[in-house]
């Protein structure tokens, strides 16, 4: 190109997936652009616009990768950009009239607002004068992001270059250059056999791949796919050791900031260090494991946390107490079912200065660390093979200096099951054993057999990158940059808030299921390689560190432990402002969590009429209460406590609340049973419908309760005559679709099926049908 050209790759990311894809794309070799800049969408005005000429005959190249959070919300680092492109003034300016763009959206079809943020950006950029070079591409996490992401990333550089500069550089030229940049080694397809084929020994990973392919003859090599079926390999992140200097280099990244443009005091980048206050099992779960684990925990003052060794020992206690293995004859199938279903309620301290605000319907973000086992493995591996010590400092993406241990512990995701075949291909480049390199390339190939073996061995067995390093030990010589450069960032975990700031302004409460399960059986040459026990990185950690609280032990005080948290507000999952609006709440399992916050909040608001002098009443009237909830003087048109009380004159003006809750067993995982029954007695709940799926031969789910007795008539009246709002929360594994289908079926009793579907769609647009679904 005759003049310097720049490709701008912008991302909006909540968990790190979009950021990883964007940075991976930015790192790919290309013959089109002299410079590639990659940054958050919210940095657009500062980094893009100043470099663009007012008038130009060429197009600026912009690629956008974004996820969607909540119920169609933009990620935190893209919200300012979305607000900017929505303004009417921005439309008049047409700031994208010299821009060629393409948008890749990441989403999950289990959510109602699939890829909504990407859809908004794609549409608005066109309205703002942009040239869309290809239709919006949406990747679905429910079926696998790679199915849409990889074809998009493979072609998009060609397409954006042609649109901007009319480059003559062909796809073949780029592929050739990319291949040279990777410096891919030729793979020796001849397997060495010493003393006869029977003496040939393979690593566990190689043996498993060979068995799944069906290679009984040990001298028969694994087939190597053509290179066109192998992934591309680029480092999406940089992680460089820093050379010690007499004068320290300033790598500060505005760490002193405590507020953001959104007005939040605490964010993912600047979390609040909270202490656990209370914890209890909501399921009928024995606390004996917690008692034993508490005795093993050892506190370290330096880390302000329990030692890694004691955490490992304590976590094993839960595995021994709660057997899940079908091979354990001492444990019945029903008991294993109950052992694997443990739900914990956890209360966390909030800042004394009321700077962490939340409202019912919001989520709480938790920054987690990789498990001690994986961290210790990686640190030992780097020290053994490269002499890199845990306290040496590194720079990530030219950011601030951190130690190698910090990087392994909290920056890159070592524990999540591997979903990207690029990671296997990346490991293959460092394998010093031919058989292991061949097996890894076979697993990473986009072939029918490669996909099948990947699914049964890597995906279904939930192997993470450390598991792969163990399965294929000759890859353990991988460089630090090679390992961390291909891994995604460690994402935060989000949990629905189940408390009200009106009830308790000093703490926030969440509820979560402890992720704990067994992988499918996988027998290789008569040896069991499956039935791996997998625990949730965050939830198993929380269960372990909260052991003293779960068993009411006085061994440790809560202020000795710190958990990094931040609020994740929602724009959609909010109670109606008018208390007179009837509510229909549908929350199976831990989907009940936000509704307990709704009910606590609703009860607190109705109690305002009983006590004119409560601090809650005064703070609500003054608009000073911690929640940030839309109950403000200007919203309610009130000017005093008396006005507020007049706006809630009594029970007649408070809408009904029908709650639908489902779980497996009434005597085990009926969460908040006592609280529900109390709220029913107090008339906060108008009706309570429960479904227990495993207490009878025929399974019953929450949507089945819509059609029992007089319930269907009541629901029809609430929805079509009283303008009730419906809220659905829970695991998106078919539940959300089943509930929606049941509501359409219910409405069709009063109108045709097509009219019922249209009616439900209209309710969505009016925010009368709102979902908070996860997968």
UniProtKB/TrEMBL annotation:
Cofactor(s) needed for function: FMN; FAD
Pfam families, per the entry: FAD_binding_1 (PF00667), Flavodoxin_1 (PF00258), NAD_binding_1 (PF00175)
GO terms of biological process kind: homocysteine metabolic process; methionine biosynthetic process
All residue ranges annotated as the FAD-binding FR-type domain in the record: 326-576
Record keywords, A-Z: Amino-acid biosynthesis, FAD, Flavoprotein, FMN, Methionine biosynthesis, NADP, Oxidoreductase, S-adenosyl-L-methionine
Domain annotation Flavodoxin-like: ranges: 7-157
GO molecular function, one term: FMN binding
Enzyme Commission code(s) on record: 1.16.1.8
Record PROSITE patterns: FAD_FR, FLAVODOXIN_LIKE
GO cellular component, one term: cytosol
Protein name: Methionine synthase reductase
Protein source organism: Fistulifera solaris (Oleaginous diatom)
């Amino acid at each position: 190109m005759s003049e310097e050209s720049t490709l701008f790759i912008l991302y909006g990311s909540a968990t790190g997936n979009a950021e990883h894809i964007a940075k991976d794309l930015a790192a790919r070799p290309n013959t089109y652009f002299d410079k590639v800049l990659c940054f958050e969408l919210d940095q657009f005005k500062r980094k893009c616009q100043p470099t663009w000429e007012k008038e130009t005959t060429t197009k600026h190249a912009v690629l956008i990768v974004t996820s969607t959070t909540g119920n169609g919300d933009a990620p935190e680092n893209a919200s300012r950009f979305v607000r900017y492109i929505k303004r009417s003034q921005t439309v008049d300016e047409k700031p994208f009239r010299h821009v060629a763009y393409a948008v890749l959206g990441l989403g999950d079809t289990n959510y109602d607002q699939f890829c909504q943020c990407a859809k908004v950006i794609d549409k608005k950029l066109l309205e703002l004068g942009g040239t869309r070079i290809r239709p919006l591409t949406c990747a679905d996490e429910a079926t696998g992001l790679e199915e849409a992401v990889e074809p998009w990333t493979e072609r998009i550089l060609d397409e954006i270059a042609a649109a901007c500069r009319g480059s003559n550089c062909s796809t073949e030229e780029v592929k050739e250059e990319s291949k040279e940049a990777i410096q891919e080694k030729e793979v020796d397809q001849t397997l060495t056999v010493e003393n006869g084929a029977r003496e040939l020994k393979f690593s566990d990973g190689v043996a498993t791949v060979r068995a799944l392919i069906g290679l009984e003859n040990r001298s028969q090599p694994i087939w190597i796919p053509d290179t066109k079926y192998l992934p591309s390999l680029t480092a999406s992140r940089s992680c460089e050791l820093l050379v010690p200097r007499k004068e320290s280099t300033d790598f500060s990244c505005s760490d002193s900031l405590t507020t953001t443009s959104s007005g939040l005091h605490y964010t993912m980048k600047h979390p609040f260090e909270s202490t656990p206050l209370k914890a209890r099992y909501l399921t009928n779960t024995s606390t004996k494991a917690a008692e034993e684990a508490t005795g093993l925990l050892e506190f370290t003052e330096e880390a302000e946390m329990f030692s890694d060794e004691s955490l490992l020992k304590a976590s094993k206690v839960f595995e021994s107490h709660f057997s899940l293995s079908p091979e354990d004859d001492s444990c019945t199938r029903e008991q294993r079912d109950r052992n694997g279903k443990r739900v914990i309620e956890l209360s966390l301290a909030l800042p004394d200065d009321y700077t962490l605000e939340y409202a019912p319907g919001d989520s709480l973000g938790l920054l987690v660390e990789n498990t001690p086992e994986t961290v210790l493995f990686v640190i030992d591996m780097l020290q053994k093979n490269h002499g890199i010590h845990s306290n040496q400092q590194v720079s990530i993406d030219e950011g601030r200096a951190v130690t190698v241990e910090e990087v392994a512990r909290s920056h890159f995701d070592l524990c999540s099951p591997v979903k990207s075949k690029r990671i296997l291909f990346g490991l293959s480049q460092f394998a010093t054993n031919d058989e292991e390199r061949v097996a890894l390339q076979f697993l990473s190939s986009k072939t029918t057999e490669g996909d099948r073996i990947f699914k049964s061995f890597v995906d279904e067995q939930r192997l993470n990158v450390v598991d792969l390093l163990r399965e294929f030990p000759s890859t353990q010589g991988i460089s630090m940059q090679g390992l961390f450069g291909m891994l995604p960032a460690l994402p935060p975990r989000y949990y629905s808030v189940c408390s009200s700031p009106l009830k308790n302004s000093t703490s926030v409460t969440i509820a979560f299921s402890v992720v704990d399960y067994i992988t499918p059986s996988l027998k290789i040459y008569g040896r069991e390689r499956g039935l791996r026990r997998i625990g949730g990185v965050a939830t198993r950690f929380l269960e372990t560190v909260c052991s003293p609280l779960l068993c009411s032990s006085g061994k440790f005080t809560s202020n000795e432990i710190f958990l990094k948290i931040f609020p994740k507000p929602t724009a959609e999952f909010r109670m109606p402002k008018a208390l007179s609006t009837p509510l229909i709440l549908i929350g199976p399992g831990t989907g009940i969590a936000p509704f307990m916050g709704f009910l606590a909040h609703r009860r607190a608001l109705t109690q305002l009429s009983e006590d004119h002098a409560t601090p809650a009443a005064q703070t609500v009237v003054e608009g000073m209460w911690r929640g940030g909830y839309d109950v403000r003087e200007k919203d309610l048109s009130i000017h005093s406590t008396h006005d507020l009380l007049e706006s809630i004159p009594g029970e007649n003006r408070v809408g009904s609340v029908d709650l639908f809750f489902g779980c497996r067993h009434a005597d085990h995982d009926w969460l908040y049973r006592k609280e529900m029954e109390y709220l029913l007695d107090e008339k906060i709940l108008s009706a309570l419908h429960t479904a227990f799926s495993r207490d009878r031969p025929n399974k019953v789910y929450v949507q089945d309760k819509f059609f029992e007795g007089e319930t269907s008539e009541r629901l029809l009246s609430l929805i079509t005559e009283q303008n009730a709002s419906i809220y659905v929360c829970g695991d998106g594994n078919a539940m959300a679709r089943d509930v929606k289908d049941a509501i359409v079926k219910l409405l069709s009793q009063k109108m045709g099926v097509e009219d019922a579907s249209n009616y439900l769609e209209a309710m969505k647009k009016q925010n009368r049908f709102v979902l908070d679904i996860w997968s």
